[in-house]
Structures are given as structure tokens and as C-alpha cells.
């Protein structure tokens, strides 16, 4: 699964602040040429993308969730990709956000609109050009390395083929060649010329076997995905406020998903990596693929990946009409969870504090509950989930905001540069031991407020890139683009009319952003933007 995040963490984070691994005050590395390579097959280019592509047959197939998980593990086993994930990715702390961004990116790349595809390819290239560094063994990694990018695409193709085989529906050669041509074309749109993926299927399988047997490793990222992510996976926004229900489901599903994923990996790699051979795992894995495959007989509207991810991402205070129904269901599940706690040994889990009734604050926010400095550090600042604050955490914030607003150059660069300046300010003020990063203890002990000049600049830039028409006010459409919800939490007809006429001034926006970032108050607007999993 390609990471849509740009940050980078060199071995010594101090070198990044001084520009050794890239000057944070200047523009990011130049985007590679967007000129796509020639289509590496005889298939007509027009059939490689859009609704008739084989890709769309898999994208909305429920089995593809298992295939993408398997592909992600194979990606993480590549030493360069594994190092980049550990250093930069938010997949541990914010897995649902990363999943949604990845699916949106794939839809754009495989959609029918050529302009959207080229724009998305340019965006991915800009993001990946910012992701480089060295791993724990001082080996360099670079997300723009064509061989690395080819392996990401190879895992998606091979896992799609394997998904069909494990489900008892192996692809015929023509379909497989069509699918391979589509993934080759995907790589070509990114600007990577032919040769990094073999031109024929026969050569691909040789390349794949060689990479599995000779290049993949038992990386830290692989172990985190298999043995930490499943055990500590945070609840999606839909299930916020149901910690007992989520903990019970995760306790049951986590080990099963891990076992299925390990059993589906190539046997030579399982042996080399020392992954456990659990009795009955192969039977469980095939049963899972067959069972999930039965879901294809459900109505098509139930299987749209976009609908499912949007539902998982639906927060309790959303103005989406479905939220009211789901909140009623959530209330019943809470009552069931209370009963469940009485008869099970699951430890209590606590989510964010509940929001109270809305204050009279216009479109800006509801009642904002206090949270401790430690909570704020973990939930907001430590985007990568490694227990420290450094540049990749702030780069992840810039990435998420840029993705939500679909920014082009130079707006994207302005936002990254503002966050880079804030990182330098934070590092100078809070890095007491000089190790190039800020610990939770350093943050809690040394900072009564984060609202320095650089953070104010971040707020100003964020307002400017959100205010697309430049009228110095954020209207309803601009607000929804950033926060993915309307000004009001409950929308009646009268509220909808008022919402359409509402605006958000620059001063109010900056004040609210600084209050959230410096005051450590929860916010019904900014929490889903920067703290949500």
C-alpha cells in the first residue's frame, strides 16, 4: 500500500534541521517528469483505466481487503520500504486515515479522467520525493527509487492474483495479462520508464520469486504490522465511544487476521523470516478467503469500497444524515457493552472525552473538553506513534492537510515550509537533551504554550490555502473540504440554509487553531482533522 505521506527521518534528526538530508526552509525536491512511459503491452491504453479496467473488479471485491493487507506486509518486508514506514508513516497511530487516503489515491489513478490521474501522479511524486533517509543499519532509502516503486506495484498485482487463487477462482491468462498491463500503466503514469517491472508475465514471476527469496527481510515494520497493529488497532471514527465492543472484537479478530496473513505469504519468505507455522493456519486462511468471497453476492451498493470507508470514517457529530441512525445504534451498543463488561475480563478502555452541547460560537466549535499534555502529545503531536515529536510528525500533519485540500504547488510547499519553520522553533525550545527530537516528558515539562510566531504562521497559511477564492473568509464548501463536515452538527432545513450563508473569518480560524494546538483543548473541528485514527 503506497504511503501518501512525505516526511523523512534521518538517522540523526539534527542533520535534517540543518539541511543535511534536505533543506526544510526551501522547496521540496523537484517532481520527476510526468510524461508516462509507453504502455508495456498490446492492450489499448484506453482500456487500462476507467470503469472497464480489471482493477475495478477487484477494488470493490471484499476479498481485496485481505489481499491489500498481504501486499502491505510484503512491501514492509522490503528493507527500503520497511525503513521508510518505521521512520515516516502514520500507519500505526492513524491506520484508518492512511487506508482512506490510499483508497482515494487508487481511485484517482485508475479512474476515467486523465487530468485527475496526472494530477494525482504529480501529487504522489511530490510526496514521495520528500521521503528519504537512512535505516538503523545506516543503509539509505528513497521512496523515489524506481525499483522500490516497482515492488509496491508488484505486491498489489501478485496479491490480487493470489487472492483469486486462494478463493478457488484462479484468473485465466488473458485476464491476468490485462491486470498486469494496468499495473504497469499505473507505474508509467508516475513517470517510471519501462524495465523496472518485467515486460512479460513469465519474466514477472521470475522477478517476483527472486525478490522474495533474495531481497525481503524480517523488518521491524513487518513485525509491527503483524504483531502490534492488530493488537492495538484503534477504533475507526464510527465506533468511537464503544471501547468495550471494539476491544472485544479486536481481541477476537486480531489474532485471526494475523494468522491468515502469515499463512498467505510465500513459503520461502516465511521460513527465512522465522514466521510461525500454526497448525491449521492454511485451512483457516483458505476458509477465510472463500467465506469473504461469498459477500460478492450481496447488493453492489453494499460492496462499494468508497461507501464502506466513508461509513467507517463517519464521526458521531457529523452532519451526514446517516449519523443520526448510527448514533441510535451506537447507544444500544453502549448498553450492550455495559452488560458485556460485567461478564467478561476485558479491561476498560477509555476514548476521548465526550463533547457537551454546542456553545454559541458560530460555525467554529462545540464545548471543548480539557486533555492533559500527555494526551495531547500522544493524540495530536506524535503522528507516527513512536513516542517522540520530530519532523516526520509535523510533515504528516502537512501531508494530511494537503491531501484533504488537494493542494497543488506552490500552496503545498507553503504549507510544508510553515510546518518546517514550526519544527525548528519547537526543537530550539523543547529539545532539552539535544538528541534532535522532543520526548513526551520534555514537552510536558517545558511548554506552557505552543503558540509562537511559527505556529501562527502555520495557522495563517492553512487559512489561506483553504480560502480558495481569496475573499478572506471560509465559506461552507471550503469548510467542508477541510473538515469533511458542515458548520453545524445537526442539519435541519433551516440550519442548511443558514449553513450555506455562514462564513469563518481569518481571525476566528487562527484563534481556534491556536487554541487547539496550544491550549490542549479538544475541538469538534480540529480533533477529527489531526487526532483521529
Structural features:
533 residues; mainly alpha; two-stranded antiparallel ribbon; disordered N terminus; 24 helices
Write the layout of secondary structure elements.
Elements: H1 13-17, H2 54-59, H3 63-76, H4 79-88, H5 95-110, H6 114-129, E1 132-134, E2 140-142, H7 146-166, H8 173-189, H9 201-214, H10 220-232, H11 243-264, H12 267-273, H13 281-293, H14 305-312, H15 322-343, H16 373-381, E3 388-389, H17 391-405, H18 411-430, E4 438-439, H19 440-446, H20 453-466, E5 473-474, H21 476-483, H22 493-501, E6 504-505, H23 506-519, H24 526-530
Antiparallel strand pairs: 1-2, 3-4, 5-6
Give a description of the structure.
The protein has a two-stranded antiparallel sheet with strand order 1-2. It has 24 helices and six strands. The longest helix has 22 residues, at 243-264. A hairpin with a 5-residue loop joins β1 (132-134) and β2. α20 packs across α23 (506-519). The chain is mainly alpha-helical and 533 residues long. The chain has helices spanning 13-17, 54-59, 63-76, 79-88, 95-110, 114-129, 146-166, 173-189, 201-214, 220-232, 243-264, 267-273, 281-293, 305-312, 322-343, 373-381, 391-405, 411-430, 440-446, 453-466, 476-483, 493-501, 506-519, 526-530; strands at 132-134, 140-142, 388-389, 438-439, 473-474, 504-505.
Amino acid at each position: 500500500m503506497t504511503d501518501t505521506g512525505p516526511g523523512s527521518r534521518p538517522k540523526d534528526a539534527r542533520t535534517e534541521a540543518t539541511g543535511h538530508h534536505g533543506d526544510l526552509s526551501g522547496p521540496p525536491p523537484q517532481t520527476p517528469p510526468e510524461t508516462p512511459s509507453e504502455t508495456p503491452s498490446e492492450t489499448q491504453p484506453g482500456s487500462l483505466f476507467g470503469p472497464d479496467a480489471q482493477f475495478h473488479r477487484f477494488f470493490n471485491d471484499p476479498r481485496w481487503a485481505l489481499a491489500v493487507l498481504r501486499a502491505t506486509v510484503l512491501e514492509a518486508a522490503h528493507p527500503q520500504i520497511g525503513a521508510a514506514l518505521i521512520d515516516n508513516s502514520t500507519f500505526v497511530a492513524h491506520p484508518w486515515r492512511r487506508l482512506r487516503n490510499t483508497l482515494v489515491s487508487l481511485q484517482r489513478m485508475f479512474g476515467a479522467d486523465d487530468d485527475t490521474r496526472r494530477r494525482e501522479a504529480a501529487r504522489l511524486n511530490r510526496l514521495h520525493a520528500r521521503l528519504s533517509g537512512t535505516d538503523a543499519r545506516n543503509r539509505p532509502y528513497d521512496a523515489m527509487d524506481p525499483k522500490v516503486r516497482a515492488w509496491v506495484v508488484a505486491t498489489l498485482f501478485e496479491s490480487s492474483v493470489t487472492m483469486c487463487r486462494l478463493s478457488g477462482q484462479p484468473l485465466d491468462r488473458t485476464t491476468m495479462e490485462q491486470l498486469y498491463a494496468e499495473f504497469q500503466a499505473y507505474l508509467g503514469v508516475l513517470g517510471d520508464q519501462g524495465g523496472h517491472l518485467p515486460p512479460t508475465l513469465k519474466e514477472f514471476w521470475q522477478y517476483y520469486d527472486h525478490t522474495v527469496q533474495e531481497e525481503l527481510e524480517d523488518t521491524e515494520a513487518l513485525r509491527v504490522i503483524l504483531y502490534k497493529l492488530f493488537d492495538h488497532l484503534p477504533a475507526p471514527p464510527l465506533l468511537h465511544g464503544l471501547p468495550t465492543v471494539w476491544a472485544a472484537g479486536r481481541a477476537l479478530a486480531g489474532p485471526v487476521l494475523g494468522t491468515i496473513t502469515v499463512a498467505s505469504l510465500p513459503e520461502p519468505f516465511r521460513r527465512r523470516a522465522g514466521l510461525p507455522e500454526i497448525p491449521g493456519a492454511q485451512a483457516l486462511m483458505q476458509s477465510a478467503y472463500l467465506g469473504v468471497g461469498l459477500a460478492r453476492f450481496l447488493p453492489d451498493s453494499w460492496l462499494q469500497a468508497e461507501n464502506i470507508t466513508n461509513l467507517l470514517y463517519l464521526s458521531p457529530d457529523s452532519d451526514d444524515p446517516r449519523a443520526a441512525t448510527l448514533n441510535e445504534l451506537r447507544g444500544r451498543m453502549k448498553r450492550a457493552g455495559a452488560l458485556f463488561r460485567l461478564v467478561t475480563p476485558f479491561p476498560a478502555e477509555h476514548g476521548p472525552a465526550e463533547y457537551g452541547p454546542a456553545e454559541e460560537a458560530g460555525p467554529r466549535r462545540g464545548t471543548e473538553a480539557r486533555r492533559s499534555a500527555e494526551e495531547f502529545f500522544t493524540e495530536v503531536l506524535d503522528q507516527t506513534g513512536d513516542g517522540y515529536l520530530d519532523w516526520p510528525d509535523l510533515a504528516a500533519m502537512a501531508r494530511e492537510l494537503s491531501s484533504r485540500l488537494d493542494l497543488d504547488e506552490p500552496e503545498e510547499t507553503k504549507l510544508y515550509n510553515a510546518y518546517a519553520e514550526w519544527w525548528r522553533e519547537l526543537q530550539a525550545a523543547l529539545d532539552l537533551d539535544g538528541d534532535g527530537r522532543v520526548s513526551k516528558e520534555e514537552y510536558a515539562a517545558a511548554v506552557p504554550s505552543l503558540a509562537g510566531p511559527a505556529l501562527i504562521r502555520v495557522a495563517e497559511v492553512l487559512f489561506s490555502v483553504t480560502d480558495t477564492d481569496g475573499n478572506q473568509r471560509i465559506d461552507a464548501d471550503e469548510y467542508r473540504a477541510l473538515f469533511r463536515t458542515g458548520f453545524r452538527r445537526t442539519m435541519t432545513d433551516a440550519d442548511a440554509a443558514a449553513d450555506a450563508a455562514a462564513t469563518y473569518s481569518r481571525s476566528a480560524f487562527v484563534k481556534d487553531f491556536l487554541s487547539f494546538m496550544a491550549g490542549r483543548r479538544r475541538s469538534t473541528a480540529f480533533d477529527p482533522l489531526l487526532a483521529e485514527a
